[in-house]
Amino acid sequence: MVKKRVFLTRTLHDFALKELKKRYEVEIHSGKIPIPKSILRSKIVNVEGLICFPYDKIDRDLIDNAKNLKIISTYSVGFDHIDTKYAKKKKIRVGYTPEVLTDATADLAFSLMLDVLRRVSEGDRIIRDGKWNQIYGAYDYVGTDLQGMTLGIFGLGRIGSALAKRAKSFDMKIIYHNRKPISKNKEEVLGVKYVTFLKMISSSDVISIHVPHTKETNHMFNMKIFKKMKKSGFLINTARGKIINEKDLIEALNKKIIAGAALDVYESEPISKNHPLTKIQNVVLAPHIGSSTKETREKMAEITVKNLNLGIEGKSPIYSVGY
Ligand code: NAP
């Protein structure tokens, strides 16, 4: 029997590849990451299944070119890189990997918050640059306490709620904004209070972003918003880079309109070592590693393969966008 074909825009764990190779004819892109669009376009003409990553833009043109495609299985919880509406119209299923990465991403958001407030990465640079002897004074190189600070969580869903649990144990006050408040019961358990978007912006000492990137949230954080934040306020983003207008953030940090930022995601990834953000001291930069723990990445690979298998069988993936 002729095996069905699947294409991966980069490799996955050995156990996942073994599972795929048992069932399908598998091709894996091994060149430049992200895969150039022209290569991806040509590689998916005859495949039934596609495994992709957050930096692979799967647009209408690509979908139209993939005549046999039944499932796009993304190795991520975010699916803003896929034209999911168009995929649905073309009866192509989309699978994604929520839940298994919630704790890992909340852990990273919390570590970024601790890092930028206590200036850990900045201190590491001070030592590597041989400047430790310049910061011995009582007023030198001070950070900020987390205890008693107000944390504003923008997007209290899976990851936002997991962050709230962590922040509660550090005695932070937690406010949040979603389009709809969560139930009173859940608010009580998490120890959080619902506020308007502008109230969250103006009252928080630290704001952590956990909404998906959509037309509505695109560039929602811009100079107008930074000017409404506390001058002593910090911004953490482990959601998606395009939620922030990066040019405005760079200006806000340079002009000290806000106190600092810690980022795992950027408008265009990867950023280079010459990116203007790398020149600013009060910013912590992580290379999009929210879900990057051994355990979490393995679980994501397992679900990505299961989603793909189900889609190729004409069934709904375990975690499905749309249907
Ligand atoms: P989720 O459970 O769907 O939570 C999203 C939350 O955002 C919901 O509470 C939702 O509440 C709120 N929301 C959505 N649109 C909104 C809007 N326009 N205004 C205000 N609130 C809005 O998603 P999750 O699993 O926590 O993941 C969140 C995002 O994190 C993902 O979309 C992904 O992009 C990102 N992520 C990044 C990494 C990484 O490696 N850095 C890893 C995992 C996830 P309402 O519907 O009530 O508004």
Describe this structure in words.
Helices cover 35% and strands 16% of the residues. The chain has 323 residues and is α/β, with parallel strands linked by helices. The longest helix is centred in the last third of the chain and has 19 residues, at 294-312. The mean pLDDT is 97. NADP nicotinamide-adenine-dinucleotide phosphate binds next to helix 7.
Topology:
Blueprint: E1 4-8, H1 14-23, E2 24-28, H2 37-43, E3 49-52, H3 60-65, E4 71-74, H4 84-89, E5 93-95, H5 102-118, H6 120-128, E6 150-154, H7 158-168, E7 173-177, H8 184-190, E8 192-194, H9 197-203, E9 206-209, H10 223-228, E10 234-237, H11 246-254, E11 260-263, E12 283-285, H12 294-312, E13 320-321
Parallel strand pairs: 1-2, 1-3, 3-4, 4-5, 6-7, 6-9, 7-8, 9-10, 10-11, 11-12
Antiparallel strand pairs: 5-13
Helix pairs in contact: 5-7
The structure holds NADP nicotinamide-adenine-dinucleotide phosphate.
NADP nicotinamide-adenine-dinucleotide phosphate binds at residues 77-78, 98, 101, 105, 155-160, 177-180, 210-213, 216-217, 238-240, 264-265, 288, 290-291.
